[in-house]
Write a structure and sequence with these properties.
By secondary structure, this protein is α/β, with parallel strands linked by helices. Helix content is 42%, strand content 15%. The strands form three sheets. The protein has a six-stranded parallel sheet with strand order 1-11-8-7-5-6. A three-stranded parallel sheet has the order 3-2-4, with helices on both faces. A two-stranded antiparallel sheet has the order 9-10. Strand 9 and strand 10 form a beta hairpin. Helix 2 packs across helix 10, helix 6 packs across helix 7 and helix 6 packs across helix 10. It is globular, with a radius of gyration of 19 Å. Bound molecules: NADPH dihydro-nicotinamide-adenine-dinucleotide phosphate. The site of NADPH dihydro-nicotinamide-adenine-dinucleotide phosphate (NDP) has 25 residues, from helix 10. NADPH dihydro-nicotinamide-adenine-dinucleotide phosphate binds next to helix 10.
């Protein structure tokens, strides 16, 4: 079997086009969505991500405000800024680029973003709402994964899904969203026994480990849909996924590439959340 590629470029362009159309409709009603992105410090990867988010906003017709703060910013200063943005009616979404410098408590900052402006979907209120199936902002990476699986036409319902990774931003919410789509879900992590056996039983395999080439060909069930969330910088300076792509292509029915896969969808889903935030805040 030679897997078909789930092309993040094509799919994310579709999602962004949807966000652009929704933005245009909001603008006709006098509402221009606006995303505020806060970047603290000089982390090179974070700078790239923030530039990408500003470009995506521009592409979709969404206003963006990028606020750059120095590395030595205190927690109190950052919380004050988040508070100001929370009170600013022109700002619909607030995103604080992670990681933050060591002197700042990430949780305290995320908690300070009001749930209705938490377009990353990381605040406890949004996480709780997702868990009980109430309207909320879905975290962008897992939501992008679901959209990629659905794009294959493979029904999720009734399938056996295995998620490797249990972080709050990827693994756990990916598992919850698959469960909400009626998959039978197993979450694996660093203490999981018989990982290989579990993975090779999966119709849908989501890898969010953070280790290049972690998922080998023998861990993949023939015909599985493989979603590779991992972004790992190799010694060759290139980006690699968590999945041994060449080997997986021989076994899977569909697979996402790295780069050009989940990362692009994460960016696109943020645009959708921002538009949704603007609509909700204006009762539209
Ligand atoms: P974390 O480091 O927070 O979580 C990694 C998870 O993998 C943990 O749950 C850990 O288990 C598990 N794990 C580690 N080693 C093993 C092992 N040997 N066997 C089984 N499980 C293992 O990472 P994130 O969830 O934040 O990110 C995962 C990957 O996804 C990274 O490469 C990251 O860069 C990428 N990423 C990509 C995004 C995108 O847009 N494409 C967005 C966010 C992340 P345990 O809990 O037991 O420690």
């Amino acid at each position: 079997m030679q897997a078909q590629i789930i092309d993040g470029k094509i799919l994310s362009a579709q999602v962004k086009a949807e966000a652009a159309a929704e933005t245009a409709a909001l603008k006709e009603k006098g509402v221009t969505p606006c995303l505020a992105v806060i970047l603290v410090g000089e982390d090179p990867a974070s700078q790239v991500y923030v530039r990408g988010k500003a470009k995506d906003c521009h592409d979709c017709g969404i206003d963006s405000r990028v606020i750059r703060l120095p590395e030595e910013t205190t927690q109190a200063e950052l919380l004050k800024l988040v508070g100001e943005l929370a009170a600013d009616k022109a700002v619909n979404g607030i995103l604080v680029q992670l990681p933050l410098p060591a002197q700042i408590d990430e949780k305290a900052v995320i908690d300070a973003i009001p749930p209705e402006k938490d377009v990353d979907g990381f605040s406890p209120v949004n996480v709780g709402r997702m868990q009980i199936g109430e309207p909320c902002f879905l975290p962008c990476t897992p939501a992008g994964c679901i959209r990629m699986i659905e794009s294959t036409g493979t029904p999720i319902e009734g399938k056996r899904a295995v998620v490797i990774g249990r972080s709050n931003i990827v693994g756990k919410p990916a598992a919850l969203l698959l469960l909400a789509k009626n998959a039978t879900v197993t979450i694996c992590h660093s203490r999981t026994a018989n990982l290989k056996e579990l993975c090779s039983s999966a119709d849908i395999l989501v890898a969010a480990v953070g280790k290049a080439g972690f998922v080998t060909g023998d861990m993949i069930k023939p015909g599985a849909v493989v979603i590779d969330v991992g972004i790992n910088r190799g010694e060759d300076g290139k980006l690699h996924g968590d999945v041994d792509f060449a080997a997986a292509c021989e076994k899977a029915s569909y697979i996402t590439p790295v780069p050009g896969g989940v990362g692009l969808m994460t960016r696109a889903m943020l645009m959708k959340n921002t538009v949704q935030a603007a609509a909700r805040q204006n009762g539209l």
